[in-house]
Amino acid sequence: MADVTREDMEQINRLARAELKPEQVYTFTLRLCDNEVDRDYERFDGEALEGLGRLLLGKSGIFDHQWTARGQAARIYRTEVVEEPARTTAAGDGCRWLKGWAYLLRTEKNADLIAEIEGGIKKEVSVGCSMGRSVCSVCGAEDGSCRHVRGQVYGGKLCYFELREPRDAYEWSFVAVPAQRGAGVLKRFRQAGEGDLLLQKQAELGRKYLRELRREVARLAMLADDGPEGRVFAGAAERMEEPELLELKKAFEIRAARRFPVPPQLRRREPAERERDEAFLV
After folding, report:
1. Does one domain contain both 30 and 160?
2. How many domains does the chain have?
3. What's the pTM value of the predicted model, to 2 decimals?
4. For 176-197, how does the pLDDT look when each residue is reduced to its tens digit (9 = 90+)?
5. Among residues 68, 165, 210, 265, which is most buried (max CB within 10 A)?
6. Distance of CA 100 to the CA centre of its chain
7. Are residue 119 and residue 84 in the same domain, yes or no?
8. Cβ atoms of 33 and 148 closer than 8 Å
């Protein structure tokens, strides 16, 4: 886990509806895109990276560019263009790339994704965006109006199309093979400390709490209704998170109490019994 600073939390909480705490989020950094010629013989120009950085703020991380709400996994909360003038691109200029900071929630649902990111399985990424111009590197024609073929060399000059003037950024995705070879989650070099071990322990306690809460909701659902409806709710509890579970627990407690009222511990005494007991009062 990356160190979550106060500045990180301020930027994250601008995007969150509820106030989040550092122990509730997992953060990581990404190389979103760069100005190198990619596998499709396209590249972003330097100014485009600056514009994409602004447009990608707050955008969702999904999988394979499939635009479904169910696939939303993380969100970009900060971006910055990094300069590497010592490295030269295929276009002959200094390397520039867009760095992004992303966060996701530390929930049981996201535990596997966090493990895959940490283990280097979920690594490669790609951005989905709309660009205003596409310019041929050989002749300067736009939108493919010339006859130059991408990837071919003309008079010693490689043909590629330079993408300029970003209009929109839709999302960024985890993919198997990104168009840009260098795009992906950035590796961190840091020793695990006591804080990490404490967070791991807290995460395990959180998972245990959710398991117990789900079992209690399932039990109450069957008490409230031992028919098909109760069994359906008991099964659905395994896929729910804390807010929904607490609401269901409250509702099922009320229904179960109505179905199985608790008998009073003290029975009503008859008049003769009261008179007999009063004889012992002093």
Report:
1. yes
2. 2
3. 0.63
4. 887 887 887 775 544 344 444 4
5. 210
6. 14
7. yes
8. no
Phi and psi (nearest 5°) for 192?
Answer: -70, 135
Q: Do the strands 153-154 and 125-136 form a parallel or antiparallel pair, or are they unpaired?
A: unpaired
**Residue 217 burial (CB count, 10 A):** 26
Residues of the domain holding 148: 6-185
Question: Can you tell me the distance from the alpha carbon of 10 to that of 87, in angstroms, rounded to the nearest whole number?
Answer: 34
Residues in the chain: 282
Structure tokens at 29: 């950094």
The stretches of 108-181 forming alpha helices (DSSP H) are 111-118
Counting Cα atoms < 13 Å in the Cβ hemisphere of 19 gives 1
Provide the token pair at 101: 């900071």
Judge whether 44 and 56 are in contact, CB under 8 Å. Answer: no
pLDDT digits (tens, 9 = 90+) for 248-279: 788 878 887 777 775 555 555 555 554 544 44
Regarding whether 125 and 163 lie in a shared domain, the answer is yes
Task: State how far the Cα of 130 lies from the Cα of 44, in Å rounded to an integer.
Answer: 12
The structure tokens listed for 107 are 């929930």
Among 99, 112, 122, which residue's Cα sits nearest to residue 52?
99
Q: Which two tokens stand for residue 234?
A: 């008991």
